[in-house]
Amino acid sequence: MGNRDLEATWTYHNQTKHSQASLYSNPHYLDWENQPLPYKVYSTLNPIPLPREGAPLKGSALSAISASGEGSHGSCIPDLETLSRIFFLSAGITKSRTSPGGKMYFRAAACTGALYHIELYLICGDLPGLEAGVYHYGAHDFSVRLLRAGDHRSVLIRASGQEASLGRAPAIVALTSTYWRNSWKYQARAYRHCFWDSGTILANLLAVSAAHDVPSRVVLGFVDTEVNSLLGVDSDREVALALVPLGEDKGSPPPSPKVTPLRLETLPLSKSETDYPAIRAIHEASSLISEEEATDWHGTIPSPKTPPPSGKPLALESLTDAELPKESIFDVILRRGSAREFAKEPITFRQLSTALDRATRGIPGDFLNSSSPCLNSLYLIVNDVEGLAAGTYVFHGKERALEQLKEGQFRGEAGHLGLGQELPADASVNIYFLSDLKPVLEQFGNRGYRAAEMEAAILGGKIYLSAYGQGFGATGLTFFDDDVNAFFSPHAGDKSVMFLVALGRPAKRKK
User: Fold this and answer.
1) Which residue, of 90, 153, 291, 489, has the greatest Cβ tally within 10 A?
2) DSSP 8-state assignment for residue 383
3) Crossing angle of helices 447-469/349-359, nearest 10°?
4) Is the pLDDT at 304 greater than 60, yes or no?
5) Residue 242 pairs with which residues in a beta bridge?
6) H-helix or E-strand containing 102?
7) Contact call for residues 102 and 53 (beta carbons, < 8 A)
8) H helix and E strand count, the chain
9) Which is it for strands 118-124 and 102-107: parallel, antiparallel or unpaired?
């Protein structure tokens, strides 16, 4: 049955749910001496340094976050300077912190546990400043390394079932995850994190591409073995998650050179690795094995079954384009972090409205379309927002409005749902992304689980950027799965929680 054996998704999803019982009974501990290297390092390949300087980006970050991904002109071939900026602001090292344990480096996008298991590859034709080839981006030294010479884009076009955006793109970015670099801490639940952490990177990548006026799109439908083989990854340990075509060119790629196995040496990640078969099982069950399956992936997308608003919903009060902060996406990403403590101070309803509005104007992707713009519904616990009563809400995207479900103060409940942590209890608002998985899986098969997780994380990443673009903070959190659904029921119905982001004003660090 493969991708259509839907029991595989439910088995994995249910087995990796968090509950108080599952956390307290789990004997897992962190072996710090065996912590994986946070980079993939090809030990025998020469680096090609990327340019570090670029022209200042213009335009508001919030405009870039909400862009359609289409660009403003027909032909666009990104040069090496543009690609360098996209790599840096998507997955590059933006800051460091020294502690008694050593120096820790932080990246442009949020990642669970700061373990940075997502890798970026570039597959391109001849570009200004870079010859055609398959390259790996090394965040540790801000370089790319040539894995294969020649133009191999046609491999990805074929693997995707002739996805049109790939056929027009002079450059394509592939995102992969190396399981062990995240499962070292999060065990089998790390497969969810594959999409959470690639999703936050994609939120950055889409916004930065838009700021450069480079068309971009997220492609999740492709034959997995063909893409993994092209990248030369060991698919038991590292797998392709998404493809992102960048730019637009009228010409068609030439036939690809023969794809032969790559046997390139990389530095060991740690002294030993623990295998979690549940990760490999769900990935195999959600893999596409033929071009026909990849072609069939595209189709009518089911909208989430959210009941229409009862009564009169509260319309968002977003900032207009003229009122948006002028700070560029470059500056916002450099300033972005993950809040470690909230000050229990309010944000305003206009700020919340702007974050919701800018993040939910659509994601350019092969798993979404204008008639069915999302696979997730957004539910909120509002603790402290000026101009909005404390309580629980559901967001109605079509109406651009919030419907109140319950009025009252739910800080304690928010803290419990976020694994009993203070962060969600102290936050001004918590936003939960819930997906009705049954129709999603009926449409897409098990691969729909990847899409639902990925969409939630991209939306969460956009909200992250929208918060920092307005001068307050955000952080991603994990959760007690069934308790979240129960808390928002009966309205949430049979939905499953995919992602959680908390917003608020960061507390000042004590010296």
Assistant:
1) 90
2) S
3) 140
4) no
5) 175
6) strand 102-107
7) no
8) 18, 17
9) unpaired
